[in-house]
Amino acid sequence: DFGRSSELAFVVEPSDDIAVQEQPLILYCQVEGIQPITITWRKNGVMIVDSENAFMLANGSLYVSRFQRVRGDGSSDEGEYDCMAQNQYGLVVSRKAKIQAATMSDFHIHPQNAVVEEGGVARFQCQIHGLPEPVILWHKNSMPVNTDNERYTLLPKGVLQITGLRAEDSGIFHCVATNIANVKFSREARLTVSGSHSTVYKDPMILVGPENLTLTVHQTAVLECIATGNPRPIVSWSRLDGRPIGVEGIQVLGTGNLMISDLTVQHSGIYVCAANKPGTRVRRTAQGSLVVQAPAEFVQHPQSISRPVGTTAIFTCVAQGEPPPQITWLRNGQILETSDHIKLKNNNSTLSIYGINQADEAIYQCLAENSAGSTQASARLTVLWADGLPSPPQGVRAETVSATTIQVSWEKPLQNTKEIIGYVLHIRKAADPVEMEYQEAVSKSTFQQLVTDLEPSTSYSFYIKAYTSRGASKASEVTVVSTLGEVPAMPSLFIKVINSTTVQATWEPSIKLGQHEGFKLYYRKVHLSQYTGPVLLASNVTAYNITHLDASVVYEVKLLAYNQHGDGNSTVRFVSLRETVERTVLNPPCDCMKDEQNNKTSTTGIIIGIHIGVTCIIFCILFLMFGYRGRLLMCKNVQEQLSTPQIPRSQRSATGLVLNGTTRRDRDDRDLNGKQLDMNELERLFPASPSQEQQEKGITLAHSLSAPHDETQISTLPLEEFSIIEEQPDPLPKNLHGSSPAAPAPDHGPANEG
User: What are the residue boundaries of the Fibronectin type-III domain, all occurrences included (predicted)?
Assistant: First the structure.
């Protein structure tokens, strides 16, 4: 019974069809499997009862004698049909076949009159809807158009293109639409070819570009592109995404229409038609999208399986298509409903049945469907049940040991215990789905199991199965028990000294603390037995300052977390403030306000100092510049003074003016070999020469000043030899108040004399 031929499966399924009004229709259905097999039909989910109009043939096919789109009672033979087959192992349902009536509407686009110059392009179009898609042919002057003429192009959607027009192309055109439902004629349109071929340049222009198309695999797509211009443009095609169009199944119709045969999903994309002026980069473009759909098809079929009672059965069904198909599961022809032990995962691609029993034995079907079509595949689940298997274990009990441990115990089954090879304990959180269950194996002589590593304050469910070499017993009764609560873990504690009387206790929140209501903080002097506290702190508090401490002793600080189950273990730290006091004595704390003011004062002083320094530098530069200019002026006055007659040496004091430790005469003798002052350079620097009166006035300056007690001789020297020493005052002349020395006469002596 477990051979391939025993599987109930469809050999032939009904397919989509278009029926003709008042004509017979046959829907085929052929099934294989273990007999007897019963076949029934449904339309739109409703069972079809044999009647004069529709009945089932001996081979299982459905025969409709006179198909009618609308019957007298308002019903219709159009709809979705499926075939159901059933035997002793289950029931399967075929794919849905969509049946439509053949129709044809009136033309909604008729050809229009056209006047085109010779050598140009003419285009006629007519459109009509129908099922199946009507075939459109063109007539010229009531005769079929000669399709052997290369200048005439007929496109599947009712388009006629005529390129390189000539005078003989003029005429009356109309189209004829035909399908199994009807034949219809469009209105007529006249084509007039005027004048001769023009040589005037015209930019390329696309008259009609490609339309957006949605087709199914294996169909044919025609993308229209007709362009004009002078010279005649070159039409080319490309994909917007840059991928190559390819050559297989590709054909160009007429002067630029693209035809793609035997479509695949890879042909989907945006296609660009370009009209190029020969020899230039002048071009015009138009684009249209092509969407290729693919009916659902299976990549992986579900496989029939046999499983012992209490185990898990898994079916996998993977389908592909464009757009991606939706997957639905059926159980004996009915939509499968999920429950605690029936789960669907991976976008319904995986069906899992946990803890199977005899009620789960059935045929499971996977239906994959999208807008392009549907398909189905089936598999059978056989639940193995052998005679003489043990009865379920008895007296299952679970007792809580701790927050993470539960003790489970049971008694051996009442029947068929000789072949038992062991027990399996099934464990699951009560709130978790069935697929989260896990098992622990136990020897046949053990009737208790300590389950560890559980979560505190959590409910768990347990049941036991007894296993033999031929299969497992049924599950025992399920028992549910909760673990105990758990006190929080030890918190991490850190102590920071703030000052000589204050420390700060800080701790970090942690998941390891578990559920806690808050913290308790204690502290004491180490030589005392009594703690200060507890200080109760909320669970979101992570720091606390302990103040008014004695800096001369060591303190012990203790922190613990607590909850409704009690206090957790504490963390202890020791802290001394003595070092802080010593540091404070050696390095007294700063007066922050005073320091801040000092900082501000220092900053202001620095800025003022910078300003004073810059000012001093400027004054120094100016002083040097004007001082140098003054020295030059003084040098020039010396030269002018030396060029006038001097007072006779005999009239001067014997001590006279001493320069550089020598008498003036010695100086004169030495200057004979010295360097002379460059008068031309002085005149160039100081072009305005003083007057003779000023010169004389400058020379006799010392004599015009009245001094009651002494007389000083003032003189100047060239810059390079300028040096002054203290000179002795002359003795008062006896005739100082009686007469004044006579003014000396001008003398043009050497410029470097004296």
Answer: 392-486, 487-583
**Contact call for residues 413 and 462 (beta carbons, < 8 A):** no
Same topology for domains 9-101 and 205-293, yes or no? yes
Which has the closest alpha carbon to 463: 333, 596, 354, 604?
354
Homologous superfamily of domain range 205-293:
Immunoglobulins (2.60.40.10)
Q: Where are the domains of the chain?
A: 9-101, 103-194, 205-293, 301-384, 397-482, 494-577
CATH topology of domain 103-194: Immunoglobulin-like (2.60.40)
Instruction: Name the residue among 381, 383, 377 with its Cα closest to residue 302.
Output: 377
Q: Which residue has the tokens 């050559």?
A: 247
Half-sphere exposure of residue 583: CA atoms within 13 angstroms, side-chain side: 10
- In angstroms, rounded to a whole number, what is the distance separating the alpha carbons of residues 92 and 376? 10
Contacts 24+ apart (CB under 8 A), 538-542: 540/509, 542/506, 542/507, 542/508, 542/509
**Residues paired with 48 in a beta bridge:** none
Beta bridge partners of 288: 271
Whether residue 398 contacts residue 406, with contact meaning beta carbons closer than 8 Å, is answered with yes
Angle, alpha carbons 92-98-99 (nearest 5°):
120
E strand or H helix at 362, and its extent? strand 362-370
According to the model, what pLDDT value does residue 124 have? 95
In order of 351, 467, 647, 722, 753, the CA distances from 665 in angstroms are 135, 146, 14, 16, 10
Three-state DSSP class for residue 436 = helix
Question: pLDDT of 209-265, one tens digit each?
Answer: 999 999 999 999 999 999 988 888 999 999 999 999 988 889 998 889 999 999 999
Q: Which residues have a Cβ under 8 Å from the Cβ of 247 and sit 6 or more positions away?
A: none
Q: Are 230 and 198 in contact (CB under 8 A)?
A: yes
What CATH code is assigned to 301-384?
A: 2.60.40.10
Q: What is the DSSP letter of 20?
A: P
pLDDT tens track for 156-195? 889 999 998 899 999 999 999 999 999 999 999 999 998 7
Report the relative pairing of strands 183-185 and 54-56 from DSSP bridges: unpaired
Q: Which residues contact 209 (CB under 8 A, 6 or more apart)?
A: 224, 225, 273, 286, 287, 288
SS (H, E, C) 272-315: EEEEECCCCCCEEEEEEEEEEEEEEEEEECCCCEEEECCCCEEE
Cβ 486 vs Cβ 567: under 8 Å: no
Q: Give Cα separations from 314 to 44, 247, 381, 441 (angstroms).
A: 31, 45, 9, 22
3-state secondary structure of 546: strand
In sequence order, what are the residues at sequence separation of 6 or more whose Cβ sits closer than 8 angstroms to the Cβ of residue 132? Answer: 18, 102, 179, 180
Q: How far apart are CA 417 and CA 391, in angstroms?
A: 8
Q: CATH number of 397-482: 2.60.40.10, 1.10.220.10, 3.30.428.10, 2.60.40.2080?
A: 2.60.40.10
**pTM assigned to the model:** 0.57
The C-alpha atoms of residue 667 and residue 674 are separated, in whole angstroms, by 10
